[in-house]
């Protein structure tokens, strides 16, 4: 496949270096795509994303469908023009958000739902309502908008049409993301539905210049994951997404199960994974692309990523700390501001704090991946 | 006075061009100082303030005294280092905020107090309490913190000591800013107190390298304003601040009343004034320096300044508008984003919207003043 070239394979693991060619430029893999949920990487301008070194971003279909609406973005010339991001863009299928508003709900019991999450879902309201917000059938999913309670329906065909209107370079097949608490029976049923939907997505896709990725599901069950990888891997998708919701150990196991069934020459996107440790493990297991709200959401809560873990800048110990977040960090934030100042900005509720933290966290993320890429190059990974 | 040089006087008005030399660089007057209330021009980095073309900023003593505390800022090397702004900084005396929490309260009745204002004062809480939060006596003012209800006291000596610790280049004498609704008798009493405090501020000031400005008060009363200008003008201040709270007509009258009594060779700072029309009128009447939260606060509410007035980007009419806020604006926001995208950012609650609006509004403010300066140069103002 000429759009994806593997440049080097690690001798010590399944890791690989590649180049993915999209309609709006190259992505050197492994690569992390920062989340631009609502057509903006929160608080940053496109030039800053480039300055940090990211080549692509991921936008959320569910959010943009509801606001401002894919038809509006199409009329305005598509996502690239709308958000003034000239590089590669991926959009997810909308499935994850649709289901996380519905079937995912029971898992959330016990979780403190005090604030809007990255995706601006008003979770308290949802918790209060208790009702299932998403209704699944063989044809698609009906759901209510978290913005105004209006009723909507996604089908595989609709998801593709929306993603064609948005105009991203990488798009995903509509899938059902099951809860890790779901039974074997339900997970299998959902997986088979996802497989049917995958074929429908391939059938309905018309627009040129968009790479369509299928999504492997199957929950925590080995045979289902294998079956799903084999099936999705056999279809003429341009790339493979790995969906699901898992902790680190389950993730590692899942990636080991499915690897033999993934076509070697297709790019593999592990959806929604972003912890540094997880990235390292996933790259070792042959994953090429990642997206996650983790570094940017963390930033907005005053948590800075460092090479020694997360640092919560709200802590009183930083009140008089003249040092930067990380001494050897070359990012704008660390080059210009002290922990004491950042502590003050967050305590005072100043949005400059979020901006500086977002910049730093994404910078660190990028450095982390660059180091891994270098190690693969040097046969040390 | 070597630190302030008048370069040119208008032949058609009292306007003048000058250079004010501070410990951290020059300010070419007339000049607007963006508000960096809590040691940050909300959402922007210092480089952007410079890029827009501003030479100085104004921080608020009241806010920084309460959080993080002037002692902390001193230990961290002073305000310039703390906020990484190498250019001129002014701090106000803290008086305005202290009084706006107390005596100013009765005026606010009827005003919709739904949100935190620029100064992060939790107005609803204050309204609910009803109690006077500030108690004035001849020696100073006792007040409760809007952050935690703790009791504090400002005196002229304390205000100067705090401002010395903060380390700004331009500082202000502690004054009582009376309500325009106050009686003649009360206004006179407060003015006389402000005069006494002015002398105490001059007496107590120790630190070199800070320019101390006295403040003219006197409310809406002609004889009081004249008396205050004459008195403050006679003291060895390095500059004159004009305090008070007024509409455009009262402002013009007040500036006309006091002008004959203001020393020609001292810089004059009209406190808290920022509407474009008011700036023009005040510059005509010989004012040199300005500060106001107007352009930045406006921005955060989705209001863009244009050469045709304010534009509220929330309006549905902008949903599909591909044009920039202003066609001939060279600012980053107008060069890169459509009204439709900015409309989306504000509707979606994205802080990038505030950032882009703040940048544009300050840019327009700067252009507006540059045009006036050019007109003074060309003898057309």
Automatic annotation (TrEMBL), chains A, B:
Binding-site positions, substrate: 92-96, 175, 217, 244
Binding note for cofactor: Binds 1 zinc ion per subunit.
Cofactor requirement: Zn(2+)
Region (RNA binding): 272-278, 296-300
Record domain tRNA-guanine(15) transglycosylase-like: where: 14-381
Gene Ontology cellular-component terms listed: cytoplasm
Domain of life: Bacteria
Active-site residues, record numbering mapped to chain: 92 (proton acceptor), 291 (nucleophile)
Sequence positions that bind Zn(2+): 329, 331, 334, 360
One example of a Gene Ontology biological process annotation: tRNA queuosine(34) biosynthetic process
Keywords in alphabetical order: Glycosyltransferase, Metal-binding, Queuosine biosynthesis, Transferase, tRNA processing, Zinc
Ranges in coiled-coil conformation: none
EC number: 2.4.2.29
Transmembrane segments: none
GO molecular function: metal ion binding; tRNA-guanosine(34) queuine transglycosylase activity
Pfam families (UniProt xref): TGT
Known catalytic reactions: 7-aminomethyl-7-carbaguanine + guanosine(34) in tRNA = 7-aminomethyl-7-carbaguanosine(34) in tRNA + guanine
Uppermost EC category: transferase
Pathway membership: tRNA modification; tRNA-queuosine biosynthesis
Subunit annotation: Homodimer. Within each dimer, one monomer is responsible for RNA recognition and catalysis, while the other monomer binds to the replacement base PreQ1.
Family: Belongs to the queuine tRNA-ribosyltransferase family.
Free-text function comment from the UniProt entry: Catalyzes the base-exchange of a guanine (G) residue with the queuine precursor 7-aminomethyl-7-deazaguanine (PreQ1) at position 34 (anticodon wobble position) in tRNAs with GU(N) anticodons (tRNA-Asp, -Asn, -His and -Tyr). Catalysis occurs through a double-displacement mechanism. The nucleophile active site attacks the C1' of nucleotide 34 to detach the guanine base from the RNA, forming a covalent enzyme-RNA intermediate. The proton acceptor active site deprotonates the incoming PreQ1, allowing a nucleophilic attack on the C1' of the ribose to form the product.
Protein name stated in the entry: Queuine tRNA-ribosyltransferase
Lineage of origin: Bacteria, Candidatus Portnoyibacteriota
């Amino acid at each position: 496949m000429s759009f994806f070239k593997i440049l080097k394979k690690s001798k010590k693991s399944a890791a690989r270096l590649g180049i993915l060619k999209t309609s709006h430029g190259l992505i050197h893999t492994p690569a992390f795509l920062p989340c631009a949920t609502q057509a903006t990487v929160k608080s940053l301008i496109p030039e800053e994303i480039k300055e940090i070194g990211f080549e692509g971003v991921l936008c959320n279909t569910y959010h943009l469908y509801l606001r401002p609406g894919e038809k509006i973005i199409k009329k305005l010339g598509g996502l690239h023009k709308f958000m003034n991001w000239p590089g590669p863009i991926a959009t997810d299928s909308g499935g994850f958000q649709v289901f996380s508003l519905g079937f995912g709900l029971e898992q959330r019991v016990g979780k403190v739902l005090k604030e809007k999450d990255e995706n601006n879902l008003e979770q308290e309201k949802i918790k209060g309502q208790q009702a299932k917000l998403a209704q699944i059938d063989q044809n698609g999913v009906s759901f209510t908008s978290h913005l105004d309670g209006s009723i909507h329906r996604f089908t595989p065909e609709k998801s593709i049409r929306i993603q064609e209107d948005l105009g991203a370079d990488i798009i995903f097949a509509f899938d059902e993301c099951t809860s890790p608490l779901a039974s074997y029976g339900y997970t299998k049923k959902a997986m088979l539905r996802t497989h049917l939907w995958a074929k429908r997505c391939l059938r309905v896709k018309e627009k040129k210049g968009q790479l369509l990725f299928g999504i492997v599901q199957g929950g925590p069950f080995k045979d289902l994951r294998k079956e799903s990888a084999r099936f999705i891997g056999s279809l003429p998708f341009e790339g493979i997404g790995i969906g699901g919701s898992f902790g680190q150990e389950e993730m590692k196991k899942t990636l080991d199960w499915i690897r033999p069934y993934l076509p070697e020459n297709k790019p593999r996107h592990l959806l929604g994974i972003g912890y540094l440790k997880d990235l390292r493990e996933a790259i070792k297991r042959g994953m090429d692309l990642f997206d996650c709200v983790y570094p940017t959401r963390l930033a907005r809560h005053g948590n800075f990523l460092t090479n020694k873990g997360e640092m919560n800048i709200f802590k009183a110990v930083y009140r008089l700390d003249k040092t930067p977040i990380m001494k050897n960090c070359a990012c704008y934030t660390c080059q210009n501001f002290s922990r004491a100042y950042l502590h003050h900005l967050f305590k005072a509720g100043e949005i400059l704090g979020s901006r500086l933290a977002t910049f730093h966290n994404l910078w660190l993320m990028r450095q982390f991946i660059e180091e891994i890429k270098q190690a693969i190059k040097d046969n040390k990974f």
